Predict the structure of SHSP domain-containing protein.
Amino acid sequence: MAAARTYVDFVPSHDLLEDNRKHTLVVNLPGFKKEHLRVQIDNYGLLRVSGERPLEGGQWSRFRKEFQVPEGCDAGGIRARFDKDGVLHLTMPRLTPLELDPKAAADAAAGAEAAQHAAAAAEEKKRQEEMEKEDARKRHAGEVDDYASDDGEGARQAASAGRQAYGFARDRSRSGMVRALLLAVAVALVGVAGLYARYRWMDPSAETAPADGAIFGLSDH
């Protein structure tokens, strides 16, 4: 005979969600697999979910939960889906979808429209900022070009002024050389005139004869 199983009872957490079209029962079953589970519903609308799985040491974990199907739901349309992460979804569709509250619907529509306007405003603001950045970049580039142009003109003016100054200095240098040459010639002429005068004063034959032709004799005392 097979040994009797030893069970460890497990109480899963669950949550019931609803919207205008359905109710959804969410049951958290970590460690379980789809083949470990069993979902049943009786004629009274009682939904029963149970399961068991092996544990280490020959023990088994098991659970059993019963839920009453909410009123207004289609019991024949209930569907079960088990995710790989160990979550069971039991979807119970409504027989007649609920109509949304007109005020709630209007508020939702207004909120959606406001969100669209906000997104459009944000996009327009972003576009304006990009245009301003591009204009600033173009202005900066133009100022750099103007500065370079002005700098080049200043360099040309400086070079022209330098050439003029050099020409003026060269003219002054030439004028100074001419004056120095004239001064040297004048000094030379003065020197020659002085030598000639001294030679005339020392040379007796250079004495001028009397107007009547007399000759002066020399005496001893």
The CA atoms of residues 196 and 202 lie 10 Å apart. DSSP finds one helix and eight strands in the chain. The helical segments are 102-202.
